[in-house]
Specification:
heterotrimer, A mainly alpha (about 550), B alpha+beta (about 375), C alpha+beta (about 350), A: about 550 residues, mainly alpha, MetI-like fold, 2 domains, B: about 375 residues, alpha+beta, Rossmann fold, OB fold (Dihydrolipoamide Acetyltransferase, E2P), 6-stranded mixed sheet, 9 helices, 20 strands
């Protein structure tokens, strides 16, 4: 029997006493209510209300706004293009992402774990950098065009936007599907096979239908990202306009009426499209079973599976991975050409760059901390249904709001709201904007993690005498700490990445991605080497974040 | 005429042998139950037969045809899962029709067979319900009917009643047996419930740690088991350590504590360590009488309904558990009473003392 | 006390008392409200109506962590990130004991369940039976006085259950706890309980010591649940001071003790399988019926014979101490006899027999 070394019994230390005080407080129902209600208040008033109020205020100004005919035609085309691009790209992502997720889950090995990590890369690279990288890859002189000779393979415009959106929404699909497939009970598939279904038939008629809700959720997430993304889209848009590009251009041209109307239209149509899809698709009943046994048997053969795996790997490599990683080349070239010294000496354009980076990180850290502090209680409320069934459901749907609404439009709303409030300095508006936009990521990640802990663990702890704070500290937190970390890192990177709302909200302050957009577009004169290096630094920090995320996930699997 | 031959099948996970050279023959229309503690390999074995898992060594023949390279869907074996596995997105009717639909049978044929199945399990009125709306027992019946609908005659049942309430299990198992008989099915039924196995099997197979310990009819396995593990695993028994103190042709005298008993045995010499067993129902308790050979004091009385269980400390120095049928009228003893224990010696069994020690031999769990 | 979840009534005016040190088993099919009952007692749920009191004091408004009642869920809920020792020490630590004291108590409790040697292992390294013992130790060490066990043996193999159930009761009694043990396994309840509470669809059907419930169940549902009963429908033909005659299908009559039911009323008879004997000499024993053996089932320690009557009814009887071969063969004509006192007569359930006996 292991015995603990005898310690001289000390009286309770000060920190011990404070802790006990908090624990007893947590058991106090009034205190608990205070904490929860302040989080809800924060959520409703700091996150939701400014967004909605801004929209409402803008609506109020509508009657006084007017557009010229060709501006309104441009606007209509832009909004429609946003949705066309979004729907097409999301569908392609689903079709390409599912086989890769399948490969990762069903053929577990060291290589597929590496593949799993690589699939995250587009997610962590700031979209500005992504835009730049894709621009260079597909249409720059050093990219693919170099190999094929004749000039840019794909020039800036709609197709390039689609390639961009395809790349950065890809990891979303893969992440969601890998998670779902891991949770999926393979018994269903095996049962289908024992009944005579070939592997292909079993997956088509049993597995995929059962996973339909997840596939739908992944599709909607990809769609949201596509509609919302600003920074990179601007970089690769060229003369083409989708919704966000239009708003941006309108702003630059000081067509404030167009800005207001367009962002309103974007917000409303996003909400409508999402609601429509969410409501109608689950109601589609599955068509009666029609099977082509001989064909599907052929499709089940291992050669077909291999061909499928190879092609999904190729698609991943050519359309996602390489374009993302391409940024490394110009950056390395830039280092070689000696610009590094200038960068560190903070000469020329670099002064602004470093202050922008500092700003980005400061805002990100603040946004992360605020989100953790106020998001955690909400996550607890949602996942443990403490609020009562109806209220929880409402809260649950509201949390998703900031994601669905395109960030640029959100930014416009926010600057309307806070701008009219007057007193708040731009820095804090920026922090609040970032907090609002990243709020859902954290809450969702935490809620999912908490739901993953069986309620019985907390119940057992409670009856063993643990007060609520103790249950949280000793049971809930240790078991979700990895998700907490991952959630925090996601928020951080998303904030560093954030371009759309930022450019809407801040006129004077520029965060790093916003600055880089200007560098890339040429509104600020920089050499190609400086541009590449600037993007490169940003990528480096995000890459470090990715490594951190992976290490966390690795340790999680070990326990 | 599905008959099954498993020849020296092995399956390894790392260094652990989930199956270690298992051989089994199952005749046409036989109902075989495989029982054993968790981790003994019984589920692994039927998964190998079904093709869900590929064995590392050995052969499997169904109707004299080697099935190694035949994929799951072509082996034509019905499989029933412990967690039922009805497709949640399809109503009962479509679940039943699945096996036929995937072979692209004609719609008329499908409808008629589906209706036949619904009548078989008497669930016509619930053909449009979804699995989540049915009780556990009903779900399992649909799962069984779904497998029968495909026309398979060889069935593998993986703890089919495991997820159900005790009382539902007791009823459903006889329905299963009757179904097997009526439809001339060959069945291999894996379970951890020995009463289930004994009550419906034609033959019982006992497995432990990847090997088959013994097979036999229910009566053989319960009353005349060849191994100590079987005796202890199937039902309850008293395990008594003893020593051979004398031999005679065909008999030997065994000393257990201070009690001597003569038991049939053809081998063994004086001084051999042995283990004797007697099941609790073969011990009768009577009022103390002068000429008792074995007496003891009752330590505990537990009323179990149809039987009363007595824990006794014998004067000879070892504990005994005795079961008395409540209806027999001999159940008025209380804790503290001294009683005579009448041993039905013809049901007493003798085994060699296990080489690896008694605890390891009888272990019901792979101790982690 | 009652508890509703939305429109579902989980518990309907359930009332009962327990003595300190008693081992109470709550027996009922899935969905009968057993787990809800346990969670209400533990303080994890609040009742919609009614009161719960410990030692005479109402605990309705006392939170779970102050109630002194430990809840052990079905899947044990061992904290996966803590060692066995720290799991067991969790209770004392939470109630304010110093770390040294808590570990001391934990070690001692682990010795009671004979797992002190695995103190530094993690729950996922232990077998199912061992995990169950750790969960029990954690409850015993908590300093509470009431143990609430939710199907404690449910996750284990049948054979293991058989072995562990007696030890479970021993350990609880040794530690001086009062226990409420929920199960759907009737054999388990019978063998460990001081008192059994039978629950069906949120209502108490019967309460009493195992013997009384077995010998004189309160209704046909309990009679069927507790075990091995033949259920026969009939009508009261005549009633007298010391017996009641019931006419069943085909005109056969069965004599039972007086049941207080008027003539011509429909009734249901419960007859235990083990109280029936086969007597080829046709001895009169209060009741004698002729029939043919239709099926024989081997159950290990006993055999069940299904005897088909002339009227089509099938009566099952159980014989213990059978030999290698069954005593009677299929097709044999036999006379089955049983005492008048072994027949239990109940009024026919108003909602129909099938509904009354439904388990799921």
């Amino acid at each position: 029997m292991q015995s603990t070394p005898r310690q001289t019994t000390r009286g309770p230390t000060f920190s011990h006493r404070v802790l006990l005080l908090f624990e007893r407080l947590s058991a106090n129902r009034a205190a608990a209510k205070l904490v929860y209600s302040s989080s809800v208040v924060f959520f409703l008033f700091i996150v939701i209300t400014p967004a909605i109020a801004g929209i409402v205020a803008q609506l109020a100004t509508l009657p006084n706004l007017s557009l010229t005919v060709d501006v309104s035609l441009r606007m209509r085309n832009a909004v429609v293009s946003s949705f066309i691009v979004g729907l097409v790209v999301s569908s392609l992502d689903v079709v390409a992402g599912i086989p890769l997720a399948w490969l990762i889950v069903r053929r577990r090995s060291r290589w597929t774990t590496v593949l799993d990590s690589m699939a995250d890369i587009p997610f962590v690279i700031p979209t500005v950098a992504l835009g730049f990288s894709i621009l260079e890859f597909w249409s720059g002189p050093t990219g693919i065009s170099q190999m094929l000779g004749d000039g840019p393979v794909v020039s800036a415009g709609m197709v390039l936007i689609m390639l961009l959106h395809f790349a950065f929404s890809f990891p979303v699909i893969v992440r969601v599907m890998v998670g779902e497939l891991l949770n999926y009970r393979e018994t269903f598939e095996v049962a289908a096979r024992t009944l005579g279904a070939s592997a292909f038939t079993a997956v088509r008629t049993v597995t995929l239908p059962i996973l339909r809700p997840a596939i739908l959720a992944a599709f909607l997430l990809a769609l949201a990202r596509s509609l919302s993304e600003t920074g990179a889209t601007i970089v690769v848009a060229g003369t083409f306009e989708n919704g966000v590009v239009f708003v941006r251009n309108a702003r630059d041209a000081s067509l404030s009426a167009a800005v207001t109307i367009a962002s309103l239209v974007l917000i409303v149509t996003s909400l409508l499209v999402f609601a429509a899809i969410k409501i109608t698709v689950p109601r589609f009943r599955f068509a009666p079973l029609k099977v082509w046994p001989r064909l599907e048997r052929e499709l089940s053969r291992s050669t077909v599976a291999m061909a499928r795996n190879i092609s999904s790997l190729l698609v991943f490599a050519i359309f996602v991975l390489l374009p993302c990683l391409f940024i490394a080349f110009p950056a390395v070239e830039a280092v070689a050409s000696g610009v590094l010294g200038e960068a560190f000496a903070s000469a020329g354009p670099w002064t602004n760059y470093w202050s922008s980076m500092l700003l980005s990180y400061l805002v990100a850290v603040l946004a992360t901390c605020i989100n953790i502090a106020f998001g955690l209680p909400i996550a607890l409320l949602i996942s443990r249904n403490r609020f009562g069934r109806q209220s929880t459901r409402i809260l649950d749907s509201l949390v998703d709001l900031p994601i669905i609404v395109p960030s640029l439009a959100l930014g416009v709303s926010l600057s309307f709201f806070w701008g009219n409030m007057g007193a708040l300095p731009e820095f804090w508006v920026l922090v609040l904007a970032h907090t609002t936009i990243t709020y859902s990521y954290f809450v969702r990640a935490m809620a999912a993690a908490i739901q993953g802990i069986p309620v019985e663990l907390e119940d057992a702890a409670k009856t063993l005498g643990a007060m609520p704070l103790r249950v949280f500290r000793k049971v809930t937190l240790p078991l979700t700490k990895y998700s907490l970390l991952s959630g925090a890192i996601l928020v951080f990177t998303r904030s560093v990445d954030e371009t759309g709302a930022t450019s809407a909200v801040s006129k004077a302050l520029k965060t790093a991605p916003v600055l880089l957009v200007e560098w890339i577009r040429g509104t600020v004169a920089v050499t190609p080497a400086e541009r590449a290096l600037g993007v490169g630094f940003l990528v480096l920090t995000s890459f470090l974040a990715l490594v951190a995320l992976r290490l966390i996930a690795f340790r999680k699997e070990k326990t | 005429m599905p008959k099954l031959e498993v020849v020296r099948v092995s399956k390894y996970y790392g260094k652990i042998a989930a199956l270690d050279g298992v051989s089994l023959n199952v005749k046409d229309q036989e109902y075989v139950c495989i029982i054993g503690p968790s981790g003994c390999g019984k589920s692994t074995l039927i998964k190998c037969i079904a093709g869900i898992i590929q064995p590392d060594a050995g052969e499997i023949f169904i109707d004299d045809q080697r099935v190694q390279h035949i994929s799951i869907e072509d082996r034509k074996i019905g499989y029933v899962f412990q967690d039922i596995a009805l497709f949640p997105h399809m109503p009962v009717r479509d679940n039943l029709a699945y096996g036929l639909a995937v072979r692209d049978r004609k719609p008329d044929h499908i409808t008629s067979v589906t209706n036949e199945m619904l009548d078989l399990i008497k669930m016509r009125e619930r053909s449009k319900s979804f699995p989540s709306e049915l009780s556990g027992g009903a779900q399992q019946k649909v799962a069984v009917a779904r497998a029968i609908a495909t026309g398979s005659r060889l069935f593998l049942l993986d703890e089919p009643l495991g997820a159900l309430d005790v009382l539902v299990r007791a009823e459903l198992r006889y329905e299963l047996k009757q179904l097997a008989k009526d439809l001339h099915l060959t069945i291999i039924h894996v379970t951890h419930d020995q009463e289930e196995a004994l009550s419906i099997a034609d033959r019982v197979v006992i497995m432990k740690q990847g090997r088959i310990v013994e097979t036999g009819t229910p009566a053989e396995v319960y009353l005349r088991p060849k191994s100590l593990f079987t005796e202890n695993f199937v039902g309850e028994t008293n395990i008594l350590r003893g020593e051979i103190t004398g031999t005679e042709p065909g008999h030997c005298f065994v000393k257990i504590g201070s009690w001597k008993v003569s038991l049939p045995r053809s081998e063994g010499k004086v001084g051999d360590r042995v283990v004797a067993t007697i099941r609790p129902e073969f011990l009768q308790l009577r009022k103390l009488s002068g000429e008792s050979k074995l007496t003891g004091t009752i330590k505990q009385v537990v009323f179990l309904g149809s039987i009363t269980r007595y824990s006794i400390e014998t004067e000879a120095g070892f504990p005994l558990i005795a079961h008395q049928a409540t209806a027999s009228g001999f159940t008025d003893f209380k804790a503290g009473d001294t009683v005579t224990i009448v041993v039905d010696e013809k049901h007493m069994l003798l085994f060699n003392s296990p080489a690896q020690g008694l605890e390891k031999e009888l272990a019901l769990e792979a101790s982690a | 006390m009652s508890k509703r979840f939305g429109k579902i009534v989980a518990l309907d005016r359930v009332s009962f008392n327990m003595q300190s040190g008693e081992y109470l088993c709550v027996l009922g099919p899935t969905g009968s409200g057993k787990t809800t009952l346990l969670r209400l007692i533990a303080g994890l749920l609040k009742p919609d109506e009614g009161e719960i009191s410990f030692d005479g004091k109402s605990v309705n408004n006392i939170d779970a962590h102050n109630r002194n009642a430990v809840y052990v869920p079905q899947q044990y809920a061992l904290f996966p990130h803590l060692t066995v020792l720290n799991n067991v020490a969790f209770g004392p630590l939470s109630r304010g004991k110093s770390e040294n004291e808590a570990l001391e108590i934990a070690s001692k409790t682990l010795e009671i369940v004979r797992l002190a040697w695995r103190g530094q292992s993690y729950p996922n390294e232990l077998s199912g039976g061992m995990q169950q013992r750790v969960a029990l130790a954690r409850g015993l060490a908590s300093g509470a006085s009431l143990l609430l066990l939710d199907e404690p043996l449910g996750a284990l193999d049948a054979r293991l259950r058989l072995e562990l159930r007696h030890r479970l009761r021993e350990m609880v009694k040794e530690a001086g706890f009062t226990a409420v043990h929920v199960t759907h396994d009737r054999d388990e309840a019978m063998s460990v309980a001081d008192q059994i509470l039978v629950l069906k669809r949120g209502r108490i059907q019967d309460q009493g010591p195992p013997r009384r419930i077995y010998v004189r169940p309160a209704g046909i549902f309990v009679a069927n649940l507790i075990g091995g009963a033949n259920i026969i429908e009939g009508v009261v033909e005549s009633a007298s001071v010391d017996s009641c005659t019931i006419r069943v299908r085909g005109g056969t009559t069965i004599h039972s003790p007086p049941a207080g039911i008027a003539m011509n009323q429909p009734v249901v008879i419960s007859l235990r399988k083990e109280s029936i004997e086969i007597s080829n000499q046709g001895l009169q024993r209060g009741n004698a019926l002729k029939g043919k053996i239709q099926a024989v089932r081997f159950l290990g320690n006993s055999r069940e014979y299904l005897v088909r009557q002339a009227n089509g009814d099938i009566i099952a009887l159980r014989r213990f101490q059978e030999g290698f071969e069954p005593a009677f063969q299929i097709g044999e004509s036999v006379t089955i006899v049983f005492q008048k006192d072994d027949v239990m007569t109940f009024a026919y359930p108003p909602q129909g027999l099938r509904k009354e006996l439904e388990i799921e």
